[in-house]
């Protein structure tokens, strides 16, 4: 619409009006087209903003506001219509706007990040929770897939290969959305569980490749030596191949765990209150564009760095043993 | 006993794709015999040896071990028969994740279901025989090539095999370590072990072998007592090969 009315403008869209206001304040954009009530609320709370009525002559079809209902909820529609009638009759809109402004009032007094530590703590908690659960199931799925890759059954191998290729060939974000909304069609599962499922499924494919690579990296002579001694396939795996493969698998698996912590941030798009989601809340609440991002960055780094230290410790131990 | 056939190979051939490595190989190894297989590289010596315990699956022909055709048994029987044949590789192939003594004990415990203390006794005795008793708790990576190969021989012997297959056991060694390995093999031959040795060590072949087989182009072209074959080869290729070797020595 702005494109039609203002010929030289480039139009940029964002998800949330708070992001747009933030962009306006940080000079990323010159002006923000927004509905009058929202604009009024923002301007009331922020002396740095000013509202300019566009004076656009819009017909009803362009400005209409709608309320969506579930199909068949007739009584609800009647009730809502009644309320709207009353609001219009008693001219309550002015007062509602003022109230809404109060709700939207941002915290401009105490924008210290410490003030919001609870928000960040909750974000870290969910990020850690998702990471741990997904690592656990990811490893299980990965081991199963890797075993399938070494199976004698062609269809099992094919299934594992297809799965791995497909997961690796599609973005995690799409997988998260697919699990959340796709499974949601059949069973309604909470966002958190959806997030865990999709991240686990995703990680499993990568873990499988890591395990397969580790096993393949063990020299062929080892298998031959074991065979020449009459060792069974199971013993060969258990005593000879896997202990050696594990040394190669461990560092790569560590990298996978670390990237899992970071990648899990994508679940915020389905509303899981992980660190990214929480950081956006803090940003919206304080109008501080950079600081919350920086804090989240630090927190991510602390988590991954701690994990790296732990993994290195075990890696060092293993090196010592052989 | 001396005449018991341990290994019997009939019309053995092996192809890798279109490449025919072994062509109609026949031969018999009797109990207590030491056979040295010599020949230029690419002759198919190692492939032949690896066919004897079916690390390579022959394309056609029979490999009989103690009367049983290995090409015609299922996986489980094959594993059972393999444990009675020891093999020593060019690149040692010790298990790097285990100590020397664990390398020796693994198969006796897992395959022969030997008790740990019994396996320990056998292993220590064998390490003593190859002169590496003091290295029992070392990891293979800390040993020299010659020491690793002696451990590999001891590991194969721990299964008390009826025949030992050696695939160029000294080719990957520094020259000063060849002697210690050959010495162990020499001892073994003297004790009456049946051995098939693919080697470039003509001195060892001359001294220890009961029979030397000369291979080239996938055939065994000549087989004879070492004295005869080295001093008076009949086959042209064998003459040529032995002539070159002796010049170099």
TrEMBL record, chain A:
InterPro entries documented for this protein: AA_ABC_transptr_permease_3TM, ArtM/GltK/GlnP/TcyL/YhdX-like, MetI-like, MetI-like_sf
GO biological process: amino acid transport
Record's keyword annotation contains Transmembrane: yes
Keyword Transmembrane: yes
Keywords, alphabetical: Amino-acid transport, Cell membrane, Membrane, Transmembrane, Transmembrane helix, Transport
Lipid bilayer topology: Multi-pass membrane protein
GO MF term list: transmembrane transporter activity
Domain ABC transmembrane type-1: 124-311
GO cellular component: ATP-binding cassette (ABC) transporter complex
Compartments, as annotated in UniProt: Cell membrane
Transmembrane segments: 126-151, 172-193, 289-311
Superkingdom field: Bacteria
Primary localization class, coarse: membrane
Recorded family membership: Belongs to the binding-protein-dependent transport system permease family. HisMQ subfamily.
Protein's name according to its UniProt entry: ABC transmembrane type-1 domain-containing protein
UniProtKB/TrEMBL annotation, chain B:
CC per GO annotation: plasma membrane
Domain of life: Bacteria
Membrane topology: Peripheral membrane protein
One Pfam assignment: ABC_tran
Domain ABC transporter, residue spans: 7-242
Single annotated GO MF: ABC-type amino acid transporter activity
Cell compartments where the protein resides: Cell membrane
Principal cellular location given in the protein's record: membrane
Protein keywords: Amino-acid transport, ATP-binding, Cell membrane, Membrane, Nucleotide-binding, Transport
Similarity field: Belongs to the ABC transporter superfamily.
Protein name: Phosphonate-transporting ATPase
Organism placement in taxonomy: Bacteria, Bacillati, Bacillota, Bacilli, Lactobacillales
